[in-house]
Design goal:
alpha/beta; Beta Polymerase, domain 2; two-stranded antiparallel ribbon; 9 strands; elongated; translocase; oxidoreductase; NADH_UbQ_OxRdtase_30kDa_su; transport
Length: about 170
């Protein structure tokens, strides 16, 4: 297994300016990129012979509107992907900050990583992050008539629709 420092240097060399920031902390590498470089960064990590991150292990949305119990000054939403290279026994994280906090949109990586399909649907359903060119972007966990996106930090705890239990009808 190659060292974290070697992986860091390889990633910086391969991605160049497309990686807005490459962070090495706590034994892990995180690549932060702009939305316009997201597809090229993910393609390079997948296809480059020295990297070969062939598996997307996880992809999730993150709402940073409050972070560490205080107001966040940066972009509100990010899409975070965890990649694995079985060949090189290495992991890497990719974080792409979504440009528009009111209508979060980022490109889909489902054409690069098949496993992104349902992960992106989950991020759409729970956070409202849109994925351009996704093959089937629709709700996956909540009902089609569900109002809002329940993992957003501004989503009300009781939801937007009030429901009551009727003991006489057991419903």
């Amino acid at each position: 297994m190659a060292s974290i420092q070697n992986l860091y240097e390889t990633v910086v060399g391969v991605l160049g300016d497309q990686a807005g920031k490459v962070i090495s902390a706590l034994g892990e590498i995180t690549v932060e990129c702009l939305p316009e470089h997201y597809i090229s960064v993910m393609t390079a990590l997948h296809d480059h012979e020295d990297l070969h991150f062939e598996l997307l292990v996880d992809l999730c949305g993150v709402d940073y509107s409050t972070y560490k119990n205080e107001a966040w000054q940066g972009k509100r939403f990010a899409v975070v992907s965890q990649l694995l290279s079985v060949k090189n026994n290495q992991r890497i994280r990719v974080r792409v900050w979504v440009s528009d906090d009111d209508f979060p949109v980022v490109e889909s990586v489902a054409d690069i990583y098949n496993s992104a399909d349902w992960y992106e649907r989950e991020a759409f359903d729970l956070y409202g992050i849109m994925f351009n060119n996704h093959p089937d972007l629709r709700r996956i966990l909540t009902d089609y008539g569900f109002v809002g996106h329940p993992f957003r930090k501004d989503f009300p705890i009781s939801g937007y629709v009030e429901m009551r239990y009727d003991e006489e009808q057991n419903a």
